[in-house]
Amino acid sequence: MKTTRILMGMPITVEVLDSNDESLVESVFAYFTHVDEVFSTYKDTSEISAINAGRLRPEEASVEMQTIFAMAEQTRQETDGYFNIWRGDRYDPAGIVKGWAIANAADILRLAGCANFYVDAGGDIEAAGHNDEGLPWRVGIRNPFDIRQIVKVLEISGCGVATSGTYIRGQHVYDPYAPGRPIDEILSLTVVGPNVYEADRFATAAFAMGRRGILFIEQLAGFEGYLIDAGGQATLTTGFGRYVLS
Questions:
Q1: How far apart are CA 44 and CA 61, in angstroms?
Q2: Residue 187's domain spans which residues?
Q3: Contacts of 138 (CB under 8 A, 6+ apart)
Q4: How is the beta sheet containing 2-7 ordered, strand by strand?
Q5: What is the predicted pLDDT for the residue at 163?
Q6: For residue 177, what pLDDT band results from cuts at 50, 70 and 90?
Q7: 119-174 pLDDT, tens per residue?
Q8: How far apart are CA 206 and CA 137, in angstroms?
Q9: 157, 137 contact by CB (below 8 A)
Q10: Which of 133, 131, 103, 134 is nearest to 119 (CA)?
């Protein structure tokens, strides 16, 4: 059972091998819809927009919002400030919400007894078990110079993959220590971690570090990374190769 829909401004795909219960997949997409209604900075009716507009104080926000704020602060501290959801005069939690939401959606499937599935939101993926060939799930890393091409194929199971880059969304990650200066020395940084939430938050922070980001990932226990710079040069962490199929 495989379904793709456009939600949260991106394609979201859910594939489940253990169940043909369409209501289960519907509950996953309903969850993503809920997340968008709460955290979208593009919707005036969202809770984060109410906070940014001053209609709601952060300390009066929902438990979900408080959770995201706490996670964001933890990540800011763990990355020496390179991860920060504060954008001058407003909050933008997108850098942590997506991975968190994918991980929670995967938990919906796990709680329903599913063991072989993946959830892909905008190229960030949580995978469990195996595909319909009994093999680990396969994930492609796109060429940032030509997104029609795949430069590496990964085999993953029981982990998450997230990529931070400028080749699709343009400049949206900035060095907090050089306000307004775009990250232009690297084009993409893919991180494999124990789950997609962890991979996503550290991929965002590492990308903001520029070339040094891959060194940051190298030093993180349980994480591997693959960086492509503006000159087309790839740099990978020492253990990344074990995920590479081609």
A1: 16
A2: 2-243
A3: 131, 153, 154, 155, 156, 245
A4: 2-7, 10-16, 117-121, 124-128, 159-165, 186-193, 224-229, 234-236
A5: 96
A6: confident
A7: 999 999 999 999 999 999 999 999 999 999 999 999 999 999 999 987 555 555 66
A8: 25
A9: yes
A10: 103
* Best CA proximity match to 98, nearest among 197, 165, 31: 197
CATH number at residue 34: 3.10.520.10
Tell how strand 146-156 and strand 234-236 pair up.
Answer: unpaired
The 3-state secondary structure of the chain, one letter per residue: CEEEEEECCEEEEEEECCCCCHHHHHHHHHHHHHHHHHHCCCCCCCHHHHHHCCCCCHHHCCHHHHHHHHHHHHHHHHCCCCCCCECCCCECCHHHHHHHHHHHHHHHHHHCCCCCEEEEECCEEEEECCCCCCCCEEEEEEECCEEEEEEEEEEECCEEEEEEECCCCCCCCECCCCCCCECCCEEEEEEEECCHHHHHHHHHHHHHCHHHHHHHHHCCCCCEEEEEECCCCEEECCCHHHHECC
Residue 142 and residue 164 in contact, taking contact as beta carbons nearer than 8 Å:
no
Q: State the total domains in the chain.
A: 1
Contact assessment for residue 201 and residue 130, using Cβ atoms and an 8 Å cutoff: no
Who's near 72: CB < 8 A, 6+ residues apart? Answer: 83, 84, 85, 93, 95, 96
Q: How far apart are CA 215 and CA 193, in angstroms?
A: 15
Question: Bridge partners of 15?
Answer: 2, 118
CA distance 159 to 153: 15
Q: How many CA atoms lie within 13 A of 67 on its CB side?
A: 10
